[in-house]
Write a structure and sequence with these properties.
heterodimer, A: 258 residues, mainly alpha, B: 157 residues, 2 helices
């Protein structure tokens, strides 16, 4: 929706420019380089931090880095233990990755909207959208991965037959089989869609408001962007947390055999 | 704002991140947490045990102290008793010795009195005889008047 408005001027042009991704390719095979680049860098940051902590991990007195990493680990582990009652080597690390990665994505939202694009334009990059979670591809990539895991574990734990039975025989019994299937399919597909859209919508709207504030005269900007940014510190953490908790809940549902 | 191949790229990145976290990050950090938890639990248990032992030792020490006190007071009592006994004994001995000395002195005095009496008696007898001789103007035969002399000297005694 953005590409046709290249030439637009003024406020609309500014907004559209800010919401256009740096991309290569055509049609489906378009790649949003900025999304890929920033999420990879942030993922690297996450890995680097935790790897540093893990390498120095000691059962003795922990250092600052280790304490912080352990705090996050403990936090995630508590969430997992609260809602997931099976044994899985995947879920806790998955939840940690989701929480930290999404938090870092969202954190990019707190950079002033013009700084990184300005740096980019100085380096000859025309468009730059720095918050990966304002890209549907990023949020859907994560939620669809989670969706695949839900399907995988449903089949693994309940067996193909058990999963099929769950899809077709509940909640109304065998006589309403097609209706059951329809309900269940909606239920299942609602999971990744709601996960992705909730995160995307919140961050996209937040970023849009930052952009709108940036259009105002400079002396009004701080009055609005300061409280909004503070509010966003809460939002970005909350969104990361919600995504993580829902992932755990969905996966524990997939593990439950009725 | 369309779904495109970025999605696939992002999914690959995500999978890599999760794999890496699962393999190299979660286990060591989690293990160290667990280990520390265990250490702390052990430490707390040890501390509790130590405290208990200390209390026990304190009790023991108190008991020993009490026993020692009792023993010492007993010893002191015994010593006191023994000292009293010794004093009594020595008093007794002294008294006996004194009595003995007094008795001996008395006996000696008695003897001396007897001797003196004897001496005096003879003296008196001799004097009486001499006086009688003078008075009678004649000799009194000692052998004849032995009876009278001894009567007189007996009356003197």
């Amino acid at each position: 929706m953005a590409t046709e408005a290249h030439a637009a001027e003024g406020a609309t042009g500014y907004i559209i420019h800010h919401l256009t991704a740096l991309h290569v390719g055509e049609g489906f095979w378009t790649l949003h380089l900025d999304t890929l680049f920033f999420s990879a860098v942030l993922g690297g940051l996450f890995i680097w931090f935790f790897k540093t902590a893990a390498e120095k991990a000691t059962a003795g007195v922990p250092g600052l880095v280790q304490s912080f990493a352990e705090m996050l680990i403990e936090f995630v582990d508590t969430q997992v233990k609260d809602s997931f009652h099976g044994h899985s080597k995947l879920i806790a690390p998955l939840a940690l990755t989701i929480f930290c990665w999404i938090f870092l994505w969202n954190f990019m939202d707190l950079f002033p909207v013009d700084i990184l694009p300005l740096v980019g334009s100085l380096m000859g990059v025309e468009y730059l959208r720095v918050v990966p979670s304002t890209d549907l591809n990023a949020t859907f990539a994560m939620s669809i991965s989670v969706f695949f895991l839900i399907i995988f574990y449903s089949i693994k734990i309940k067996g193909a037959w058990g999963f099929t039975k769950e899809l077709t025989l509940q909640p109304f019994g065998p006589w309403l089989l097609p209706f059951n299937l329809l309900l269940k399919l909606v239920e299942e597909f609602a999971k990744p869609i709601s996960l992705a859209l909730r995160l995307f919508g919140n961050l996209y709207a937040g970023e849009l408001i930052f952009i709108l504030i940036a259009l105002l005269p400079w002396y009004i900007q701080p009055v609005l962007s300061f409280p909004w940014a503070i509010f966003h510190i809460l939002i970005i953490t909350l969104q990361a947390f919600i995504f993580m908790v829902l992932t755990i809940v969905y996966l524990s549902m997939a593990h439950e055999d009725h | 704002m369309s779904i495109n191949a970025t999605l696939i790229g992002q999914m690959i990145t995500f999978a890599l991140l999760v794999w890496f976290t699962m393999k190299y990050i979660w286990p060591p950090l989690f293990d160290s947490l667990e280990e520390r938890r265990k250490k702390i639990a052990e430490g707390l248990a040890a501390a509790e045990k130590g405290q208990e032992e200390m209390q026990l030792a304190e009790k023991k020490a108190k008991k020993f102290l009490k026993e020692a006190k009792e023993q010492s007071s007993e010893i002191i009592n015994l010593a006191q008793k023994r000292a009293n006994e010794l004093v009594e004994e020595s008093k007794e001995t002294a008294k006996k010795e004194g009595d003995r000395v007094i008795l001996a002195a008395k006996a000696q005095i008695e003897q001396e009195i007897q001797q003196a009496k004897e001496g005096l008696r003879q003296e008196v007898a001799t004097l009486a005889l001499m006086a009688a001789e003078q008075i009678l103007g004649a000799e009194i035969d000692q052998a004849k008047h032995q009876d009278i002399i001894s009567k007189v000297s007996n009356q003197l005694g």
